[in-house]
Amino acid sequence: MTSLTRLKLGILGFTACFTAQLSAAIDPYAGLWQFSQGEMHFYILIKKQGGQYYSFDHLGKHQLVIKPDHSFTIENNGEIIVTGHFERPEGGVYQAINSQVNNQQLPLTRSAVAPEQHVTHLIQAMPGTLPLTNKHHSNCAAPYQKSAQSLPEVVTSRLQDLKDNAHAKQMGLTQLDSLLIWQDGALVVEEYYNGWSQQLPHQVNSVTKSVISLLADSAVTEGAKLNYQAPISQYLPQYQNQLAQGKEQITLQQTLTMSSGLEWDEWSTPYHHRLNPQNIIANKSGDSVRFTLSTPFRKSQNNTFNYSAGDVTLTAEAIANATNTDNIADYATQSALAKLCFENAYWQLQHDGRPNAGGGLNLRPRDMLKIGELVLQQGQWHQQRLIKPDLIQAATTAKLPTPLDGPLANYGHYWWTGSEYMAGKTVTSITADGYGGQQIVIYPELDLILVMTASAYNSDFHNLPRKVKMLFLSEIAKQQLAKHASEEAEGKVQAAL
């Protein structure tokens, strides 16, 4: 064998080895998939995590069950809603999907968009949404860096167990999608499950209401003529005919605390029920403000807490009018809150074209953490005063009792306030709470923030945060309390010297 032949064989062997390694590294199904037909254009992102495949689109996240013949199904509540087949393999990677949804063909082709741009393209092309972007503020703080500080050993062990589906099932946490814990200015826990990742925004449902509260406070801080004690009729000039028979006396303070007296019941029926008023304003009403104001008024219930997305709808409209913006999403992009520099965030639109103020935000968990940090720091963000501290204080102070208990026992301005027994001590908490297990929980005494997202829609979703706090937060709180006690003792010693 000549030297030239050996060289050729060596090159061929190296190339074959490299190609095999490359093929093993490239997933045949995962990637960004594009649908384009007429004026309709959107993307579907397929990801693999923990041996499972997941799809993300404007309708949410679903798990794909892919069979050996490269066909797949997607189920929702045990019912198959999508079937399909991966087609046209090139170099071990499929280039097309032939799928069927409700007996309609949905052909998809693989997008050539670079992987780092997958989420951005997915969101920008989502129908029925508005981006929550930063219009006027270019100086964004550096992104959170995961801290290397040590956690209690039991927490580290449980976090590792949670990555295994069998252990997660034993803990009752299979529906947990993300878990972030911020302690003493550092991000000490950041975990994602069920296909979710750092850059993917999650539907946060009623956490949106807490953001509306901050937008109201931002507007006041920036000088908008928004008086919480004034009748909301001042800010709804186009609805004067509906603001009669006592409704004209409803104040912005009352809509902020869900105590307008307007008849509203969204807790007695499932949210997807045709008679649920939240479902009506989100998916059916041609004018959500008019629909809300058309409901009966009970003056005797004025100043009594009654959970209502209708009240939030009125507040959001008032903010938009007071700030001379098109809608609450338009104001959000130019408000002081935009300095938080949300990434990949968007707002789902209602049937009437308005952003869903009661529950339509989709945020990355890291951006939820920014909101928590802003509240903990009394409206300060990285040496910038975004919201006056007295407004944050008022928003997160109990105004009315609720039918719930513990951390959700009282209500401020779209923020829940209460107390929790943790590590042998009762501590106060401030919570933004969303259906399905979405929460931002702030513990001012502990300098601690919990962020979680979940898909617990078929169970008592308030049980999930309780389990998370019991398994993870209680041990960190114990560590934090011990640290604070030590610092206090050290301070006394130094003062005595």
Structure explained in plain terms:
This protein is of the alpha+beta class and 497 residues long. The protein is 31% helix and 26% strand. The chain is built from 13 helices and 22 strands. It has helices spanning 3-25, 118-124, 153-162, 165-171, 207-221, 252-256, 277-283, 288-293, 309-322, 328-334, 365-376, 389-395, 463-496, and strands spanning 31-37, 40-49, 52-57, 60-66, 71-76, 79-90, 93-101, 104-110, 129-131, 176-183, 186-192, 202-203, 346-348, 361-363, 380-381, 384-385, 400-401, 410-411, 416-422, 425-434, 438-443, 448-454. The strands form four sheets. The chain has an eight-stranded antiparallel barrel with strand order 1-2-3-4-5-6-7-8. An eight-stranded antiparallel beta sheet has the order 11-10-22-21-20-19-18-17. Strands 9-13-14-12 form a four-stranded antiparallel beta sheet. A hairpin with a 2-residue loop joins strand 2 and strand 3 (52-57). Helix 3 runs antiparallel to helix 13 (463-496) and helix 5 (207-221) packs parallel to helix 9. The longest helix has 34 residues, at 463-496. The protein is globular and about 65 Å long. Residues 1-24 have low confidence and may be disordered.
Task: Describe the structure using short key phrases.
497 residues; alpha+beta; 8-stranded antiparallel sheet; disordered N terminus
Mean pLDDT: 90
How large a portion of the residues is in β-strands, by DSSP E? Answer: 25-35%
User: Can you list the strand order of the major beta sheet?
Assistant: 1-2-3-4-5-6-7-8
Give the low-pLDDT segments: 1-24
Share of helical residues: 25-40%
Helical stretch tally? 13
Structural class: alpha+beta
Largest sheet: 8 strands, antiparallel, barrel
User: What's the end-to-end separation, in Å?
Assistant: 87 Å
The radius of gyration is: 25 Å
Q: Strand tally, please?
A: 22
Name the shape in a single word: globular
